[in-house]
Write a structure and sequence with these properties.
321 residues, alpha/beta, 3-stranded antiparallel β-sheet, 13 strands, 31% helix, globular
């Protein structure tokens, strides 16, 4: 077996801003896993919030001892971007080698389309209203917030898209006091869920204050080992493959979270269709699907995922799986 990793840059359609900063490109790592006859691919997006860089993740990948399979990979690397790209490449390699689709290999039903959220980045209220109006035809909008001055933004988005369902992502940007003050207004404006309102590791107050709408753990939930720390604080978990360390753990986390009565959201970093493709399998029948990364790009990969009024479609074999 051979592993190779490349750094690839994809321009965004417009600058994307969250509470932590802005970006104009998606910087990703692409892994190729080859057995001499077939090649599988996987993609990851290293995330500075978790101490990852493109260089550090590439070094983790190239430091692996070969050959290895998916089971050995789980022990060789911790949850995170490096393990994700390799795990997904190994799934794709097995699919290419056997001629089976990944969902068949995983014992899953054939996937269908899923309605995905479309994310509006953090901006001035009037610009967020305009962005909401441009995307008011979309059934589900996700608003990036996370500042103490978010009420005008919320009002502006609802005014711009009066009929869309809305979810909110605070990206750890609020305090307990700010969230408690905003929560009744979120309900009034028809917001269906709030994602990570308080910083991970400083979210104990979620167990003490009222939660009038579902609260979803993002930065507080990485893999199955995260679940005990969420009890009493969160109602949902956001499964991202770059956090779980690949499809293998993502499927296991989904099963365990559902068994513990958490609702499931499946999210993404800002990546290409190659990163979203395995997540589509995890997103089947999820409470919320947020796999809009390719919709934010000015240029995607060849054989890109199909998005239409029915939602995000499963990948074709030429892309992945």
């Amino acid at each position: 077996m051979e592993l190779s990793v490349s750094r690839d840059s994809f321009p965004l359609a417009e600058v994307f801003t969250i509470a932590r900063g802005s970006r104009s490109t998606a910087e990703v790592l692409t892994v190729h896993a080859s057995d001499g006859g077939a090649t599988g691919r996987g993609e990851c997006v290293p995330y500075a919030r978790y101490g990852e860089t493109l260089d550090s993740v590439a070094a983790q990948i190239m430091g692996l001892s070969l050959p290895l399979d998916r089971a050995a990979l789980q022990a060789a690397l911790p949850p995170g971007a490096a393990r994700n790209a390799v795990d997904c490449a190994l799934w794709d390699l097995e699919a290419k080698r056997t001629g089976c689709r990944v969902w068949e290999l995983a014992g899953l039903p054939a996937p269908g389309t899923e309605i995905t959220a479309f994310t509006l980045s953090l901006d001035a209220p009037e610009k967020m209203r305009a962005a909401a109006a441009r995307n008011a035809h979309r059934p589900l909008l996700k608003i990036k917030l996370g500042t103490p001055e978010d009420m005008p933004r919320l009002e502006a988005v609802r005014a711009g898209a009066p009929d869309s369902r809305i979810i909110v992502d605070a990206n750890e940007g609020w305090t307990a006091e700010v969230y408690a003050d905003l929560a009744p207004h979120l309900v009034r404006l028809g917001v269906e869920m709030v994602e990570q309102p308080l910083p991970a590791g400083d979210d104990a107050m979620l167990a003490e204050i009222a939660r009038p709408l579902p609260v979803c753990a993002d930065e507080s939930c990485h893999d199955r080992d995260s679940l005990p720390g969420l009890a009493g604080k969160y109602d949902m978990v956001n499964i991202k493959l770059d956090k779980t360390g690949g499809l293998t753990e993502a499927l296991a986390l989904r099963a365990e979270a559902l068994a513990q009565d958490y609702r499931v959201m499946v999210g993404c970093m800002v990546g290409t269709s190659l990163a979203m493709a395995p997540a589509v399998l995890v997103a089947q029948d999820a409470a919320v699907t947020d796999l809009d990364g390719p919709l934010l790009l000015a240029q995607d990969r060849a054989s890109a995922l199909k998005f239409d009024a029915e939602g995000i479609h499963p990948p074709e074999p030429a892309l992945w799986g």
